[in-house]
Amino acid sequence: MSAHAAQPTRATELATLLGRLAELMSDGRSESPQPPPRPMPERVLLTVEEAAERLGIGRTLTYKLISSGEIESIRIGRLRRVPTAAIHDYARRLSGDGPSGHAA
Length: 104
Hints:
Blueprint: H1 3-26, E1 45-46, H2 48-55, H3 59-67, E2 74-76, E3 79-83, H4 84-95
Antiparallel strand pairs: 1-3, 2-3
């Protein structure tokens, strides 16, 4: 093989390598790096649906427990929210460890 025949192959290899190097260097990042997202603090108030999910019960039963006063809730405008502490208090009472709980 002559030196002239090897030139296009080397140029093609070089172009391929340079293209791959450019891909690796960019790595999908934008020009201006974004700061890492801040971790969200633990929420203090939950929707009724979220409270039901945490308790492992249905939404309808959760509304009944709120209506009867067994689970504390608050209103913010037209919204109903359940403090996370109210979920823990209710669970503690169910287990008999709370102030008005009765052991089974």
